[in-house]
Amino acid sequence: MDATTTSGTPFSTVIRVASHAQHTEAETSTFMSDLLGGRLGVEAYARYTEQLWFVYRALEDGAASLRDDPVAGPFIQPELMRTAELERDLAHLRGASWHDGLAPLPATAAYAERVARCARDWPAGYVAHHYTRYLGDLSGGQIIRDKAEKTWGFARKGDGVRFYVFEQIPNPAAFKRGYRELLDAVNADDLEKQRIVDECKRAFDYNGAVFRELGAATKSSRRGPLSA
Ligand code: HEM
User: Fold this and answer.
1) What is the 3-state secondary structure (H, E, C) of the chain?
2) What is the CATH number of the domain that holds 67?
3) For 28-64, what is each residue's pLDDT tens digit?
């Protein structure tokens, strides 16, 4: 199988370069900057973790039926699954009844619905969402974990930050290399690869929208000189 696009650039490079600007936007979004800059309380972190739960439930509920799919199947790897870890973190952050009354923000609901639709109807689109979340979690997620541990006093790699700890991936750099090889070999023609790139951009847009809604919801709990 052709591992590259017609221009000869590996697909893993194409998708990384194409989403670079939006990645910078996500990293520097007000909510992320405030969260990682220690300007928000653990409440904001808990709210963010709650929203992630809806997204990963969509990703991972969808995964089961895609295991044998020729396009998405190779990406479905049990060591990536995050729902159980999110639930442990939420039990730590919110208590055993963390699920009571929990609802997605409108942006989260739209994001999760899009992921579920891709899982159902368009496996290549699901790959875009899979890449955007899991490769991010294996990369910048480690920076977020480190900051969260220091800012809110979670035990290193313990309850509260288990979402960021991939127990079954001892060497994330090697895993990411393997993941990029899967991307390079994705079973799609150039037009479909372009659609995957477009869907990846949409995935970043969904994340940005969730950050904006979280930021708006967190304004009242902001610490420092901007506090009312
Ligand atoms: C403050 C927040 C973030 C930080 C500090 C951060 C940091 C990083 C870093 C340092 C890398 C490069 C790792 C490497 O080359 O191996 C990376 C890669 C990545 N990040 Fe983030 N990131 C953040 C937020 C996000 C968000 C919100 C998303 C999307 C939901 C995301 C998605 C990705 C993806 C998909 C990659 C892999 C790029 C590739 O190599 O193909 N990141 N991130």
Assistant:
1) CCCECCCCCEHHHHHHHHCHHHHHHHHCCHHHHHHHCCCCCHHHHHHHHHHHHHHHHHHHHHHHHHCCCCCCHHHCCHHHCCHHHHHHHHHHHHCCCCCCCCCCCHHHHHHHHHHHHHHHHCHHHHHHHHHHHHHHHHCHHHHHHHHHHHHHCCCCCCCCCHHHCCCCCCCHHHHHHHHHHHHHCCCCCHHHHHHHHHHHHHHHHHHHHHHHHHHHHHHHHCCCCCCC
2) 1.20.910.10
3) 999 999 999 999 999 999 999 999 999 999 999 999 9
For residue 97, report the distance from its CA to the centre of ligand 1, in Å.
32
Q: Whose CA is nearest to atom 28 of ligand 1?
A: 136
CA of 192 relative to ligand 1 center, distance in Å = 23
Q: Which atom of ligand 1 is nearest to the CA of 12?
A: 41
Q: Is the CB of 143 under 6 A from ligand 1?
A: yes
Number of folded domains that form the chain: 1
pTM of the model: 0.93
Q: Is residue 3 part of a domain?
A: no
Give the domain extent around 105.
11-220
